[in-house]
Design goal:
Chain B: InterPro entries: Multihaem_cyt_sf, NapB. The complex is a heterodimer of chains A (215) and B (158). Chain A has 215 residues and is mostly helical. Chain A contains 12 helices and no strands. Chain A has a domain of 30 residues. Chain A is 59% helix and 0% strand. Chain B has 158 residues and is mainly α. Chain B has a domain of 42 residues. Chain B is 33% helix and 0% strand. The longest helix of chain B is centred in the first third of the chain and has 29 residues.
C-alpha cells in the first residue's frame, strides 16, 4: 500500500515527458471549466421544481398541497418553487444540504415513503426536520424573499402588523414559529409537541399524579 | 255540459300559460337574464372583510363573525389553525379573543380540559364576511327594536 502511494507520488512529481507545458496548463484549464461547469449544471438540475416532482413521493403528496397555496399561484405571478424554500441559496450551505440529501436518495431507492400511508406515517418527522432547520437558520429561506426591512407593515392588516412588530422586529421569533403549514398541510399537531413549555408536568405534578393513581 | 268542460279546459290552459310565464320569469331572474344556452359571466369574487373589528351580534346566542381572512386555514383531524391564536394557551401571545367556555362543555354540560370535539370545527358556526351587497333582502329586526316597538304599542293603548 505504502509502495503504491510512493509510486503515485513519484509519477506526479516527475516532469511531463510527452506533453508540453502549454498543453497541460491550457488543457487543465479547459477541463477544469468543463468539469466545474458540468458539476454546477448537474447541481442546478437537481435544484428545480421539475426535478423534485419527477418522483411520485413529492408529486402526489407535498406538491399537491402546495398548489392551492399563495406560494404557488398568486396575484403577482411569482412562484416559490421547491428549492426556494428547501435548499439554501448560499453555495457552501447548498452543498452541505445536497450532501444531506444523499440520505433522501437512499430513502427513494428503498421506498421509505413510496405509498401515501408510509408518507403520512413519516410526515410528522419530515415536518419537524424542516421546522428545526428553519428555526436554526432564522428562517433563512423565507428571508431570501421576505425581508423585515422591506416589509411595510402599514400595508398589512392590523393583526399582522401588530404580530410582526411584537415578534419579528424584536427578533423574539422567526418566521416559521408562526407560519408553519403555510405551503403544505400540517401533520398531527397534537403529537408535534408544540404546546407551551408549561404543559409538561413538573416534578410536583408528576408526584401528585402518582399518589393519586395509587389511591 | 259540453260548455262547462270547454270552460274548464280553457281555464286550465290559461293557468298553465300564466304559470309557465311566471316560472320562466323566475328562472330568468336567477340567471340574471342570460339565455339558457349561454354561460353567464361569473361575478367578481368579493374581498373578504379583514378589518379585525368585532361585529355586533344580532342576538345573544349568535356565534361571533370572523372579522378577518381565513383563506387556507387548516381545520382537520391534524391541526386547527384558528386555535393557534384563539386557544386558551395562545391568547397571551396573540391577544386574540379566547374561545368561550362553552367550547369546553360536552353535551352533558360538563367542562372538559380542552376543546370538546363537537365544538372543534370553527367554521361550522363562525363565518367570515364578504365585502358585497346581500343577494337577498334581509328583513331581520333586532330584538331591541322589537321591544321598543312593543313598548310604543302599549303606550298607545294606554
Amino acid at each position: 500500500m505504502l509502495s503504491f502511494i510512493k509510486r503515485v507520488w513519484a509519477t506526479i512529481r516527475r516532469p511531463s515527458v510527452h506533453y508540453s507545458l502549454g498543453f497541460l496548463t491550457i488543457g487543465g484549464f479547459v477541463m477544469g471549466v468543463i468539469f466545474w461547469g458540468g458539476f454546477n449544471t448537474a447541481l442546478e438540475v437537481t435544484n428545480t421544481e421539475k426535478f423534485c416532482v419527477s418522483c411520485h413521493e413529492m408529486r402526489d403528496n407535498v406538491f399537491q398541497e402546495l398548489k392551492p397555496t399563495i406560494h404557488y399561484t398568486n396575484r403577482s405571478g411569482v412562484r416559490a418553487t421547491c428549492p426556494d424554500c428547501h435548499v439554501p441559496h448560499d453555495w457552501t450551505n447548498k452543498i452541505a444540504r445536497k450532501m444531506q440529501a444523499s440520505k433522501e436518495v437512499w430513502g427513494k431507492i428503498f421506498g421509505t415513503i413510496n405509498t401515501r400511508e408510509k408518507f403520512l406515517e413519516h410526515r410528522l418527522k419530515l415536518a419537524q426536520n424542516e421546522w428545526a432547520r428553519l428555526e436554526a437558520n432564522n428562517s433563512l429561506e423565507c428571508r431570501n424573499c421576505h425581508s423585515p426591512d422591506s416589509m411595510d407593515i402599514t400595508r398589512q392588516s392590523k393583526r399582522a402588523a401588530e404580530a410582526h412588530e411584537r415578534f419579528l422586529f424584536t427578533g423574539e421569533k422567526t418566521c416559521i414559529n408562526c407560519h408553519k403549514g403555510i405551503a403544505h398541510e400540517l401533520p398531527d399537531m397534537g403529537q408535534a409537541g408544540l404546546t407551551l413549555p408549561h404543559s409538561k408536568p413538573s416534578g410536583e405534578i408528576e408526584s401528585y399524579l402518582k399518589t393519586a393513581q395509587k389511591n | 255540459m259540453k260548455l262547462l268542460s270547454k270552460t274548464i279546459v280553457a281555464s286550465a290552459l290559461v293557468v298553465a300559460m300564466i304559470g309557465g310565464a311566471v316560472a320562466q320569469e323566475s328562472v330568468a331572474t336567477l340567471r340574471s337574464g342570460v339565455a339558457l344556452d349561454e354561460n353567464a359571466k361569473p361575478p367578481q369574487i368579493p374581498a373578504m372583510t379583514n378589518n379585525d373589528l368585532r361585529q355586533v351580534r344580532n342576538y345573544p346566542e349568535q356565534p361571533p363573525l370572523i372579522p378577518h381572512k381565513i383563506e387556507g386555514y387548516q381545520i382537520d383531524i391534524n391541526a386547527n389553525k384558528c386555535l393557534q391564536c384563539h386557544s386558551r394557551s395562545a391568547i397571551g401571545e396573540s391577544q386574540a379573543p379566547m374561545i368561550s367556555i362553552t367550547h369546553f362543555m360536552n353535551r352533558d354540560n360538563q367542562f372538559l380540559a380542552s376543546v370538546t370535539p363537537r365544538r372543534y370545527f370553527c367554521t361550522q358556526c363562525h363565518v367570515p364576511q364578504l365585502e358585497t351587497d346581500p343577494l337577498v333582502e334581509n328583513t331581520f329586526v333586532d330584538v331591541d327594536q322589537v321591544l321598543e316597538y312593543v313598548a310604543g304599542q302599549q303606550k298607545e293603548e294606554k
